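Hey, I'm writing a tutorial for new members on how sequence and structure tokens pair up, and I'd like a real worked example in the thread rather than a made-up one. If someone can provide the structure for the chain below, I'll link this post from the tutorial.
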Amino acid sequence: MKPVLLAGETFHVTSFASKGHEVGASSRYSNGATRFIQALADHGIEVTQIGGERCEADFPKSLEALSNYSAVILSDVGALSLLYTPETRAGKRSVNRLELLRKWVEAGGALMMAGGYTSFQGIDGAAMFHGTPIEDCLPVQIQYTPDGLEAPEGLDPVTLNTDHPVLAGLTTTMPYVLGMNRVIQRTDPSSQTLVACNHRQAQFPLLSVREYGAGRTLAWMTDIGPHWLSSDFMAWEGYDLLMVNMVRWLRSRS
């Protein structure tokens, strides 16, 4: 089976320490997907990761290049990181990779978006996927306002459809999450929400799936790793199976 392409989940942290007139700086590079990648690898699923800082130059720019992958996962990487290309930086026409991904799914590809500060519309609205071709093919609609929800008290997932293959084999309840992106469930029959979370008299989709054209899409509205996924969720016996089920369902149609 072809590998899965994971775009995003990397970041740099720069810190300053002030001691009187002396100021020191340090920087570190982090990858929030190590647990996720290991879970898939343990079940024979190869992952090729392109960090957010590399998407402009390295993310596929043709259907032929996308065909090298069995599924694409966008996780904590904003729309601009995919829309910018080396050509547009030079003031020239280039491909719209959001429309390219939509066409790829319609023709039989598999696309997942995972939640985070720069997923869906984003914690401060900077992810900017509302009104894009990516939104057109996802199982949820994206709000035009900032959609990040921090919930230090915890949000308890509520399973709405236990019979779907994505949830197959899960014998214990999903642990709480500490945040998510607030999106709107589509009402057409091609989309369904499998898991939701309740917050302030409203229910928001947490896990939704869709048949789109000849392909499939999946939206997971919280992190695939810390911090929105709680330590209890990360240690949960069902974590590996849930993540693997998501990917297997996505690419099983192809």
